Amino acid sequence: MVSGSGDPVAGARRLARGALAAAAAAVLFLLTGLGHGGLVVLLSGVVGLVCSAAGIWWFLAHRGPLRAFGGLLAVGAPVAVLTLYVVGGLWLTALVALGLWGVALFCARAALRRPVGERESTRPSGERRPRPRRPVLIMNPKSGGGKVARFGLVERAEKLGARVVLLDPSAETDVTALARKAVSEGADLLGVAGGDGTQALVAAVAAEYDLPFLVVSAGTRNHFALDLGLDRTDPASCLEALVDGEELRVDLGSVSGRPFVNTVSFGVYADVVQHPDYRDAKAGTALDLLPDLLQGGEGDRLDAIADDRRLPAQQALLVSNNPYAAPDPFAAAAARRPQLDGGELGVIAIRVDGAAQAAELAVRGTQAAGLNVLTAARVEVTGKSVGVGSGNSGTGSGGSGGSGEAGEDVGSGVDRGLIPVAVDGEALILPTPVVCTLRPGALRVLVPRHRPGVIEPQPPMDWRRITRLAFHHHSPRSGT
Asked: Which of 25, 37, 193, 382 has the highest count of CB atoms within 10 angstroms of its CB?
């Protein structure tokens, strides 16, 4: 649509105007006589969303009858809204309004993307390097439910000239020591077939000796491999980098001296993964623990500082090696990092003190008072906030656009002891303060030249930018 115009910016401007027109038509259709019962459709939809969000909170944060009621409300509210539309003869109005809003979102997202002539490849480009002569790959046979054996990774790697070190699942192994030993014996490449936690430990050794690092996606999730553009469905394809590869320079995270390639989690998630039953029954364990954690019985409220921004009494804090795409339910790539060489930590901090704030989060998204989304060069978790209960709802952190200064007195009582931390999904206990930093470009990653690539994330919705683009001569990427 845009490329056919010959002027990508002009095409994007037309899309922005189309988005505004469709959005205005949807609103007018609901608020005027054009849409029968339009106000009922709008108000019932908002009420249904609020009730469903409150029900989810009660289901997660309570036990017994209140949990059962919350579950019923979470499911029943949207069902009741749909029933109202059908029985009241409002389904056509709702369908037309939803269709117009869908057109508005489609045009807006298309307008916010970079013009075709300026768009970068969705696959990060690298530099060609000579084929490694003495590569050493460490493989965990338990990772990913036995992917090493299922995909014949040992045999394939050895045929390509690599030496394979197979971990013993029945014994604790110092992976860092194994990697250092391989370097001392002349390895000119280090690689891992395993989970992200093991990847990070070996990656740190590779970065220390400035050696290329090979990622083989043999773990359960392998978010690092995903964001490198590798094929997680076929770990053997990662080995092609040994004969036809290119090198990327990416950032490496550090949390109190320990490396990480993806995320460091504090608060609720970190508390849950510490539980001995979590690995065998994730959902059941989480549901059993969440009421105490969310209501302040056993869970910690953590004070943090992201650069000079204070984040007091947070329930959950996620620090990532480069920011993830903005939280957005309509973005398929929201759980991915657009780049791994941006030199910044991503920070997502959440504080929800009750059903009302849960509803606000559902309605306002990243603008809610209980959610902060930002970037930082350094994040310091100073310790637990003592004496913070669910009644202190007035101390929210200000949302992604807020100052984060509200409720500074909440963190006046700080327990500087040990706190649970999940580093790339691995459960640890670390002394406070816990400091997260980033080493820009520290890691040389060897990847296959031919790989799926990274899906370009949808840009975050910003109607102010859409309006500026529609009526002023600015690029879609311009923030002015």
From this structure: 193
Give pLDDT, residue 267: 80
Copy the structure tokens of residue 180: 């250092």
Per-residue tokens: 437:
């930093």
356 token code pair: 């009302």
CA distance 106 to 94: 18
Q: What is the dihedral of CA 4, 7, 13, 15, to 10 degrees?
A: 10
Q: 302 φ, ψ to 5°? A: -110, 140
pTM of the prediction? 0.71
Q: Give the residue carrying structure tokens 């959610």.
A: 371
- CA 463 from centroid of its chain's CA atoms: 23
DSSP β-ladder status, 434-448 and 212-216: parallel
Contacting residues for 77 by C-beta, under 8 A, at least 6 apart: 47, 48, 49, 51, 52, 55
Length of the chain: 480
* Residue 438, C-beta contacts closer than 8 angstroms, at least 6 positions apart: 251, 252, 253, 254, 321, 322, 343, 344, 345, 377
Residue-wise pLDDT tens digits, 151-161: 999 999 999 99
Distance CA 326, CA 373 (A): 8
Task: Report how far residue 203's alpha carbon sits from residue 249's, in angstroms, rounded to the nearest whole number.
Answer: 12
Q: Letter for the amino acid at 285?
A: T
Cβ(316)–Cβ(268) under 8 Å?
yes
Nearest Cα neighbor of 198 from 179, 180, 185 is 179
Distance set, CA 210 to CA 101, 119, 129, 431 (Å): 51, 32, 14, 30
Residue type, 8: P
- What is the number of other CB atoms lying within 10 angstroms of the CB of residue 165? 17
Torsion region of 266: left, alpha or beta (phi above 0 gives left; psi -120 to 50 gives alpha): beta
- Residue pLDDT, tens place only, 134-193: 999 999 999 888 999 999 999 999 999 999 999 998 888 899 999 999 999 999 999 999
* 434 within 8 A of 239, measured Cβ to Cβ: no
420-458 pLDDT per residue, tens: 898 998 888 899 899 999 999 999 999 998 888 766 666
Answer yes or no: are the C-beta atoms of 153 and 218 closer than 8 Å.
Answer: yes
d(CA 384, CA 303): 6
In the DSSP assignment, the letter for residue 264 is E
Cα separation of 289 and 297, whole Å?
10
